[in-house]
Design a protein that fits this description.
Layout: H1 2-33, H2 39-71, H3 75-100, H4 104-129
Helix pairs in contact: 1-2, 2-3, 2-4, 3-4
Length: 137
Amino acid sequence: MAEHYSRRCTYLGLVISLFLGALFGFFGKNIVALYSDTEAVITASIPVMAILGVLQPIQTPQFILSGSLRGAGATKATAVVTLVCVLILRPLAGELFIKILKWGLIGAWAAIALDQVVRTLLIMYFYARGSWKRIKV
């Protein structure tokens, strides 16, 4: 039953995140203009909002399936994945993209995007492996 609900929640989450991602991608400039009237800020935010738009459906399985894993008692896998990605991968990617490749703001968001993609793939791997189904809660 947990697998069924995880699948259903992931599907629903993907539908919602695709909609929100499209909003961020197509109307990012308008959304940012609600918070700032500085043209430089609005202009700099356009590619960032596009990245956020693409990331929405990528992050969704990570959020939902990691919650399913934690709920099933598989907390170690989700903790290790998060720890490694946030404390190692993201800072190293940030260093590479921002300082070495000199991508600036886009580099910072590229590092976050890489972190989210890797984290999603790892969480999906641990979920698909299925060992969480044998844990007694």
